Amino acid sequence: xxxxxxxxxxxxxxxxxxxxxxMLFGSRPxxxxxxxxxxxxxxxxxxxxxxxPNCGTHIPKARAIAVGxxxxxxxFCSTTCRDAYARK
Length: 88
Prior knowledge:
Layout: H1 2-25, E1 49-51, E2 58-60, E3 65-67, E4 74-76, H2 79-87
Antiparallel strand pairs: 1-2, 3-4
């Protein structure tokens, strides 16, 4: 009977210890990481980014001001940068 009493005391002690630790540090659920399936090239949510040659700001290509044709297209973040680049 003595062994059963000690076993019950250990169980109670572990439960109390667990309760105290949760009160001190909180309980955070463990997030399980899902494996990322292999994909081809991932595209940014906002689209392709281009760099303004005047100030160096990266902006979405869809919102940029494009100047030039063919392979010689330059993208600007604003008309101010476009005009300052043209004056150089």
